Amino acid sequence: MFGSRLAAPLVALAAPLLLYGGALVSQYGFGLHPCEMCYWQRWPHQAAIVLALLALLLRRNDTAMRALTLLAAAAIAVSGAIGVFHAGVEYGFWEGITSCATSASGPITLDSIMNAPLVRCDAVPWSLFGISLAGFNAIFSFAAAILVLTLMRRGRTPTA
User: Which structural domain range is residue 34 located in?
Assistant: First the structure.
């Protein structure tokens, strides 16, 4: 269906879409309000989605597609690195830059400020097998970035 040269940008699009989508589902579906560092992890995924989409749109230009896919993989890895830092803060390995944030959005009123949840970056709101959401983001982000790079290497056509 898709050629091997499109596999890397497709994974570079699918991985951050799934990870960012999972973050939104946990926030809006399960009420796990994000802290400031949670938001930090989302930004590189958003950038990776845009970069991967551009790579797919420019697939006729192999050089541009490869460069954009490489940048998307780097953005995914940056989210993973932020996830490692955040998980370390959650487990008390090191001190975070900040300890709390609110997830208030929309027009700011005194009522919205007073009712906004206060979320600490050093608290683990949910974990599975002792791994927090930040830890899972780190694991899946690094795995996705490595997979994208591996697919890029395999999809490279040899030059004569």
Answer: 4-155
What global pTM score does this model have?
A: 0.76
Task: Say if 160 falls within a structural domain.
Answer: no
CATH number at residue 27: 1.20.1550
Inter-residue contact 31 to 125 (CB < 8 Å): no
Tally of structural domains, the chain: 1
**Tens digit of pLDDT for each residue in 67-89?**
999 999 999 999 999 999 888 88
Assess if residue 42 is contained within a domain.
yes
Contacts 24+ apart (CB under 8 A), 143-148: 144/11, 144/12, 144/15, 144/16, 144/19, 144/73, 144/76, 145/73, 145/74, 145/76, 145/77, 145/80, 147/11, 147/15, 148/8, 148/11, 148/12, 148/15, 148/69, 148/72, 148/73, 148/76
